Amino acid sequence: MPSALHQLLRSVTHMYTVVAEHSRPGHIRPSVWEINGPQGERWFAKQHAGTKLHRREVHAYQKWTVALGSDRAPELVAADSETRTVLITAVPGRSLDTLRLPMGQERHAYEQAGELLARHHAAAVAEPTPETAEEEWEATVARLLERTAGFVPPHNLALARRLIRHAPPRLPRVSAHGDYMPKNWMWEESEQLLRIIDFERAELQPAPHRDLSRLRYRVLHHKPNLDAAFHHGYGRQLTEEEQAACRAYAATDALDSLAWGIQHRDLGLVDEAHTMLENLRLEDGRRVWSGWSS
Fold first, then answer.
1. What mean pLDDT do residues 154-162 have?
2. SS3 state at 103
3. Among 51, 148, 149, 282, which one has the highest count of C-beta atoms within 10 angstroms of its own C-beta?
4. 3-class DSSP state for residue 208?
5. Could you give the CA distance from residue 227 to residue 231 in angstroms, rounded to a whole number?
6. How far apart, in whole angstroms, are the C-alpha atoms of residue 30 and residue 54?
7. Where are the beta strands (DSSP E) in 99-224?
8. 3-state helix, strand and coil shares in percent for the chain, rounded to the nearest 5
């Protein structure tokens, strides 16, 4: 464990045990260690890969996670901005994407996920989103298409071009989680309770930018029961503007994830990017068919 994390721990206690390392390979990912304290405490010590990620996570713990409710997220124990380190409490449960739950439990978990995301989005007062100049959007899109054109099937590439031709609708910014996926949802079976972790990508942005678009096209697209449970917990269905924004953001996110995954040899992310594009294509086909039939 890096000396910076030992120093952070010693600012809290001089007696602790390093239980395990949970870091993933690569200098672009955070380093994470599981720690036991002298009075039975369970902590995670984390060193962020960048200053922005550190700042986001600390801010989320200081300002936003309280909106989730008591014991629904880790608590910040200590932080040091110079070394980009944090010490947070551990929460019970296992990551939902590693579990195979009975349908009733899974629906209950997704309903809680919707409810907690609604609380998180309401933690900061909604702010107007600055206008994105069409030229700026077009430049971003052009770079993405140039980086990924050789890796996307022609039919999906044509769809992506159409979906991102224009900037998404202007929507209020909310306190978004930034990576709101089942891997960051901890399910505790005995309590039937969901908790949320990993806030290093939390920032003010439109809800469809990442939180809603990723869920919609990576997870919920082929799972209508879970989709219904999630939106019941969230408190509403998405507006037409939010759905349009989800499509545009999902297309750019898929292309960006594909480029990043190929560059860093993250095959799981490459698969997720292709899944998003394919689900966008299937949905687009249904929308066109619906338009013809009406």
1. 91
2. helix
3. 148
4. helix
5. 6
6. 10
7. 173-176, 185-188, 193-196, 203-206
8. 50, 15, 30
Beta bridge partners of 47: 31, 85
Collapsed DSSP state (helix, strand, coil) of residue 26: coil
Share of the chain above pLDDT 70, in %: 95
Task: For the chain, report the end-to-end CA distance as a whole number of angstroms.
Answer: 62
Average pLDDT taken over every residue of the chain: 93
pLDDT in tens, 213-263: 999 999 999 999 999 999 999 999 999 999 999 999 999 999 999 999 998
Which residue in the block uniquely carries the two structure tokens 């190929």? 262
What is the enclosing helix (H) or strand (E) of 224?
Answer: helix 224-234
Return the residue matching tokens 């077009």.
138
In the three-class reduction of DSSP (H, G, I as helix; E, B as strand; rest coil), residue 196 is classed as: strand
Give pTM, 2 decimals: 0.93
Burial of residue 234 (number of CB atoms within 10 Å: 0-12, 13-18, 19+): buried
221, amino acid identity: H
- Cα Rg, the chain, nearest whole Å: 20
From the list 60, 169, 173, 171, the residue with the least C-alpha distance to 126 is: 173
Classify residue 58 as left (phi > 0), alpha (psi -120 to 50) or beta: alpha
Tell me, what DSSP letter sits at residue 49?
A: S
CB-based contacts of 105, cutoff 8 Å, min separation 6: 187, 189, 192
Q: Is 268 exposed, middle or buried (0-12, 13-18, 19+ CB in 10 A)?
A: exposed
3-state secondary structure of 175: strand
Question: ∠ at Cα 1 (82, 83), nearest 5°?
Answer: 5
Closest CA to 163 of 208, 130, 205: 208
Which residue's structure tokens are 């900037």?
A: 167
81-112 pLDDT, tens digit per residue, is 999 999 999 999 999 999 999 999 999 999 99
